[in-house]
Design a protein that fits this description.
The two termini are 13 Å apart. Helix content is 83%, strand content 0%. It has 24 helices and no strands.
């Protein structure tokens, strides 16, 4: 099936990036731990990523890809390329101005994002300095989002999915330099972020040229097509970036908690992002272009089929991941992160946050699968309204839970907000007749959930049996963790087949060794 091949391509490269990202996070934990420099750098990394999600991967991509893909379907590639060039020129001009304003307003932005840092002037000053270094990353990665939309629309998924690998390689090099050459770790990481953004931009420019879609840079002008793009983007600024906005609220509140809370949430979220990136982004990326073409050409039945299979595939991969992360949170962190500046206390605090984030993982993925149902129909207003409701839920619960549950309350509030968002998207699509679970999905989804819960029981028992090896860490701990991963994969695959949640052939297609490159 074409969707499965596209998801496998995106997911395979994303998995490579996430594995490198995991290596980077292990090194970061060992070098920075959960101290003031770590807190400062994570804010410096989060701010450009927040705006990237809002303006680039969120609002821009969700508006640009349906317009670009629809233009290819109706007017051909040349017309679509000219539209992309006009969008590139306007986007670049707007980003240059925005980055300049952001640099000037950085102290104010940091006070909004991390108000608790005001109590420590040195920490606040370091955060401002590091964020000014990383903020230009927003410029490059936003241009990367446009180039990636072009490539995804012509079904060249591999180059785009491989792009994040460059960021992780740059950050790993910075951490190695900090440990071996005496570089200041916070500053080395900040410079690596911006340099990686420039490298990613050059990489996709070359990929577009190879795909026959090389873009020139004309004079910025607001053509009717660009105005249409901007009109679709405006409401999507908040709708598409709801996850990052929820994390922003959590970060602001976490800065008011005792030192280290920002870092605990960062490390936990990074582990949670592994399956979210591999599954959610992959399925969402693969669904939007064909869904846009099917809606544009009036193939509503095929559009519903595409989204049903996307929901099935997303939950087949995400539910077991969520259960595994919740059950194995502490063993994973103890074996992989507990070294150097990251000790047992940091392990326990981060594990609690990871379990809370894992509870919302299926919801975060469903948002990425369901939102294209609106974007493909050029409706970016409805997701904004839903995002606003989810943000209210997140803000209220974050404040309400911060005192009894500390940073864990922040993570739990984010998960509940994610479920609010996903369920509202589903319900509105259903009411409008744009989506409904078909017979195959209604049969499979409860079986996927049962297989995931059964796997969780197997993992819980196996973790108890292997506890001594996990506590020993080192090679024994790594071996025990590998055994737990193998047990989880094997038990879920077996239960999925026995319960009818998936066939052997479908599970085999998810094997990266059998992936068909595109």
């Amino acid at each position: 099936m074409a969707l499965l091949r596209s998801v496998a391509t995106v997911g395979g490269y994303t998995m490579m990036s996430r594995v490198l990202g995991f290596v980077r996070d292990v090194l970061t934990a060992a070098v920075l731990g959960a101290g003031p420099v770590a807190d400062a750098f994570f804010i410096a990394l989060r701010l450009p990523n927040l705006f990237r999600s809002l303006f680039a991967e969120g609002a821009f991509s969700s508006a640009f890809v349906p317009l670009f893909a629809g233009r290819i379907a109706t007017d051909g590639k040349r017309s679509a390329r000219l539209f992309a060039e006009d969008a590139l020129a306007v986007l670049l001009a707007a980003l240059l101005l925005f980055v300049a304003l952001g640099e000037a307003a950085m102290p104010w932005l940091i006070d909004v994002m991390a108000p608790g840092f005001a109590a420590d002037p040195a920490k606040r000053a370091l955060t401002i300095e590091l964020t000014r270094i990383t903020f230009p990353y927003l410029l490059y990665i936003s241009l990367v989002a446009l180039l990636g939309g072009v490539l995804n629309s012509v079904e060249r998924f591999a180059a785009v999915a491989a792009t994040p690998v460059l960021l992780n390689l740059f950050l790993i090099a910075a951490l190695v330099g900090a440990r071996t050459l005496g570089w200041l770790p916070g500053h080395a990481l900040a410079w690596a972020v911006t340099l990686a953004g420039f490298a990613q931009f050059l990489w996709l420019m070359a990929a577009c040229r190879a795909a026959g879609m090389a873009l020139r840079l004309p004079r910025p002008r607001l053509t009717p097509e660009v105005k249409r793009l901007l009109a679709l983007m405006a409401p999507g600024v908040f709708g598409a970036g709801v996850t990052q906005l929820n994390l922003l609220v959590s970060t602001a509140v976490a800065s008011l908690l005792p030192g280290g809370a920002v870092s605990y949430l960062y490390y936990a979220d990074r582990l949670n992002q592994l399956p979210l990136g591999v599954v959610g982004i992959a399925v969402g990326t693969a669904i939007l272009p064909p869904l846009s073409r099917q809606v544009r050409t009036g193939l509503e039945a095929e559009a519903k089929h595409t989204q049903n299979r996307g929901v099935e595939l997303a939950l087949l991969l995400t539910l077991p991941a969520a259960v595994a992360l919740a059950v194995l949170a502490e063993p994973i962190l103890a074996v992989l992160f507990q070294r150097g500046a990251f000790g047992p206390a940091e392990t326990r605090a981060t594990a609690a946050a990871l379990a809370a984030f894992a509870a919302g993982l299926p919801a975060f993925v469903l948002v990425k699968v369901l939102a294209p149902g609106f974007f493909a129909r050029h409706d970016t207003t409805t997701p904004v309204k839903i995002a606003a409701a989810a943000m209210v839920v997140n803000a209220v619960l974050t404040v309400a839970l911060m005192w009894p549950l500390a940073h864990v309350g922040n993570a739990l509030a984010t998960s509940i907000a994610g479920w609010t968002n996903a369920l509202l998207l589903f319900e509105l699509l259903r009411r409008r007749g744009h989506f409904a679970l078909d017979a195959a999905a209604r049969r499979r989804l409860p079986r996927i959930a049962a297989a995931a819960l059964g796997m969780g029981a197997v993992l819980y028992g196996a973790a108890l049996a292997l506890a001594p090896a996990i506590e020993a860490r080192g090679l024994a701990g790594m071996g025990a963790l590998a055994a737990l991963v193998a047990a989880g994969l094997a038990s879920f695959a077996l239960l999925a087949i026995l319960l009818g949640a998936a066939t052997r052939e479908e599970l085999k297609r998810l094997d990266p060794r059998r992936r068909q490159q595109r």
